[in-house]
From TrEMBL, chain A:
The gene is amiR_1. This is Aliphatic amidase regulator. It comes from Roseibium aggregatum. Residues 126-187 form the ANTAR domain. Coiled coil: none annotated. PROSITE patterns: ANTAR. It comes from the Bacteria. One of its GO terms (molecular function) is RNA binding.
């Protein structure tokens, strides 16, 4: 029972709908408009400005990679696929292209709000885990420097590995840095040969 | 223009678990149809096509389908619960008909084949909390029957309370129809909230309210003036069932029988002749009654009963019903409504007939906002309609429940 749950609101957002002129496209636009979203449409290609949109909703039936101004592995914003065909190749393409929610054609008078909430929430969660993974990977890459810093401290203090590790931890805590950053600092100050390797 | 007779579906549960409000809806539509046919104002007549789904959601689609396909109805007045409305939507879509939904509901819908004339949350729970929090306090106990109305309405209540640094002391749900509510009373007695937000329905609600009256006798801290009980959907239809247990309850609606306008006075005196002096009129009656009048006015104005034409006409300008002019927002197909807040009073010891005394009115009709697009409980002027121009809405107070 989280007391912090807030009613999702999309007022002031912008969306681009990539779909040929059609009643399905109109139905989607009408629903987006009701939610206070500024809508633009595009067909057959997404213009470069679409990158600035908060949302992209695209046709999965007639869609193909050349319509997008960004590479397939890049997913700059939450995307929703409009699916008529459920042929697995089409579904797979939509997912690869970045769809994290979908609406089935024909588009009825409802469904967009729910799809938006799913897509934006999933997108935010994915972003957060990607950032976390990147941070962890960066720290992992510094393992040799941390080991070297512990050795340096052991030599300097004449202590054992556990004590040196603990000292490094305390220094990190006191300076509100990660152990990796403290290790890099130490090596830089002592002129160690591996200093600055993190950039490599 | 040769319409002759226009069949209109009237789809309410006149029997089953919520027949009390179903009957109100049915009579509202029926009396409006009779008035229109007898008025001599129109060059068409409405032919009433009845259906009784008996309170079970799955019957609604069957009845609606029959009305459209066999009786040729293109307009259906009715459905009250959200689950029954959801059942009817695909039928309306298939037949390109129009459903006139007149019950207050939890919002988050805006279907092309529906005209919504009941309050959505920005016209119900939001003004209710804006009234009660500065007066009673910020520590609330939330209750509900275990289905979407209670869940969603309490979720919005939580958000409103969070926005004013309020506190939810408890949030409890009981199964629909469950009258075993002693544990709620025990918990409320222990937690001592500033007010209780009651979204229980039917028998559970009646059992709870009676038990709270007993508690208030034992402990005056739970009397209505110290720990009020709030509701978003208690109407005149339920007051006779509750009797003295209703005294002091605070409810919100867009119609109360005690609304002091000349139009309402005329309306009530006409109905007294039809329904007798003891029948009270509630929003459950008035909603369908006004919807049928809106339908007649729109057909008259656009010269067609085709749903798409009627809808376009409705959204073009306000239309007159015997009680008030009603304006439908073209974007959401919901009505502009004036929320009222009222407290239940019993009129005298000799006669236990209760009524609502209106204690607050918004200054004018409030624009509908079914997706709460123009609302942010943490924003200082949330609930006002933001930057969208809303002419009727210039003086509405800020939503912020308390100013500090």
């Amino acid at each position: 029972m989280s007391s912090l749950f807030r009613t999702p609101s999309f007022r002031g957002w912008s969306a681009t709908v990539l779909h040929k002129p059609h009643s399905d496209r109109d139905a989607v636009c009408r629903q987006l408009d009701r939610l206070g979203i500024a809508v633009s449409t595009a067909w057959p290609e997404l213009p470069e400005e679409a990158r600035q949109a908060d949302l992209v909703i695209f046709d999965a039936d007639a869609g193909h990679d050349a319509q997008f101004p960004w590479p397939v592995e890049e997913h700059p914003m939450p995307m929703i696929a409009l699916m008529g065909s459920e042929a697995p190749g089409r579904v797979e393409w939509a997912i690869r292209r970045g769809a994290i929610a979908h609406l089935s054609k024909p588009i009825a008078s409802s469904g967009v709000y729910g799809a938006l909430v799913v897509a934006t929430r999933t997108f935010a969660m994915r972003r957060a885990s990607e950032e976390r993974i990147a941070k962890l990977e960066a720290r992992l890459a510094c393992r040799p420097q941390v080991a070297e810093a512990i050795l340096l401290l052991m030599q300097h203090q004449g202590s054992d590995a556990d004590t040196a590790y603990k000292l490094l931890q305390d220094m990190a805590m006191a300076s509100r840095q990660t152990m990796e950053d403290v290790a890099l600092d130490l090596l830089a100050r002592s002129g160690g040969q591996n200093a600055g390797r993190r950039e490599a | 223009m040769a319409f002759g007779e226009i069949p209109v579906g009237v789809l309410f549960s006149k029997s089953g678990s919520y027949a009390a409000i179903g009957q109100e809806g049915y009579w509202g539509a029926r009396i409006a149809i009779d008035e229109i046919n007898a008025s001599g104002l129109f060059d068409f007549r409405f032919l009433r096509v009845d259906g009784d789904p008996k309170g079970s959601a799955e019957n609604y689609a069957v009845e609606a389908d029959r009305m459209m396909r066999e009786a040729g109805c293109r307009h259906i007045i009715g459905t009250q619960t959200s689950s029954s409305r959801k059942e009817v939507l695909p039928v309306m879509e298939r037949g390109r008909g129009l459903l006139w939904y007149t019950t207050p509901y939890e919002g988050f819908e805006s279907h092309d084949r529906v005209v919504y004339t009941g309050a959505c949350p920005n016209q119900g729970v939001v003004p209710l909390f804006r009234h009660i929090v500065p007066e009673s306090g910020r520590r609330a106990f939330l209750l509900g029957s275990n289905y979407i109305w209670g869940w969603e309405t309490n979720r919005i209540a939580r958000e409103l309370l969070a926005g004013c640094d309020g506190e939810v002391l408890g949030e409890r749900y009981v199964a629909i129809g469950d009258e075993n509510i002693d544990h709620l009373i025990v918990e409320i007695r222990e937690k001592r909230p500033d007010f209780i937000f009651n979204n229980l329905i039917g028998e559970s609600s009646y059992a709870f309210l009676r038990a709270m009256k007993r508690l208030a006798k034992e402990d005056p801290a739970f009397a209505p003036n110290r720990c009020p009980i709030l509701s978003c959907n208690l109407t005149e239809a339920e007051l006779p069932i509750l009797g003295a247990a209703a005294e002091g309850l605070v409810s919100t609606s867009t119609y109360f029988e005690t609304l002091d306008t000349p139009e309402n006075e005329d309306f009530l005196s006409r109905l007294e002749g039809l329904r007798g002096p003891d029948a009270s009129i509630s929003s459950m009656f008035v909603g369908p009654y006004e919807a049928v009048w809106l339908l007649a006015r729109a057909i008259e104005a656009c010269g067609s009963d085709a749903p798409d034409h009627v809808l376009a006409e409705l959204c073009r300008r306000p239309h007159r019903t015997p009680l008030r002019d009603i304006r439908i927002d073209p974007q959401t197909q919901h009505a502009y409504l004036q929320p009222l807040i009222a407290v239940v009073e019993t009129t005298g010891p000799e006669r236990v007939r209760s009524r609502f005394r209106i204690i607050e009115k918004t200054s004018g009709p409030l624009a509908p906002d079914p997706y709460l697009v123009h609302y942010d409980p943490l924003e200082s002027n949330a609930g006002s309609s933001g930057d969208t121009p809303v002419p009727d809405n210039g003086n509405s107070p800020r939503l912020r429940l308390v100013s500090s």
